[in-house]
Amino acid sequence: MFSFIDENGCRVDLRFDAGPYEITPKHVLVLVQYDGKWLCTINKKRGVEFPGGKVESGETLIQAAIREVYEETAVHITDIKWFAYYVVHDKVPFGKVVFTGKVQSIDEFIEEHETLGMTWLTTEELWNHPNLSFYMKDEGMKKMLQEVKNHERQW
User: Fold this and answer.
1) Which of 111, 117, 133, 153 is most deeply buried (CB count within 10 A of its CB)?
2) Are 52 and 30 in contact (CB under 8 A)?
């Protein structure tokens, strides 16, 4: 387990094993790489971040991942794989599952989507982006991107 304190002062426990879950996850985060660049969404309030969000009633974690990526970026994904799990120990702790996915197709982004659009960033561009969401700057994100590289070698 990898633990750190996020920018909001909350302890976060990040794991790369398949469980069991400490808290039932009700949020998803999705890491998608295409042509050497990361798919990011531009959140209206938080800035640039990986797509993700809350699981809706009756929806599986994978269904939520697929839906959230499309709603936020107009990108259809496939080959969704479980990657990590973390718990944010806030006043009301919550769990989030991290998936990886592959681009199936990309639709034209229209303003009906939930964000200002999407952007594709290299890892270097990601770390140096002036408008990153708070969670994209923490030690957990750096650890996840490091682990993605390790997993890519195994895939």
Assistant:
1) 133
2) yes
Q: How far apart are CA 134 and CA 47, in angstroms?
A: 8
pTM: 0.91
For residue 108, what is the domain's CATH number?
Answer: 3.90.79.10
Structure-block tokens of residue 147: 């682990």
Q: Name the token pair of 93.
A: 């702790």
On average, the pLDDT of the chain sits at 90
Across residues 77-98, what is the average pLDDT? 94
How many domains in the chain? Answer: 1
Please check whether residue 26 is in contact with residue 54, taking contact to mean a CB–CB distance below 8 angstroms.
yes
133 vs 83: CA distance, rounded Å: 21
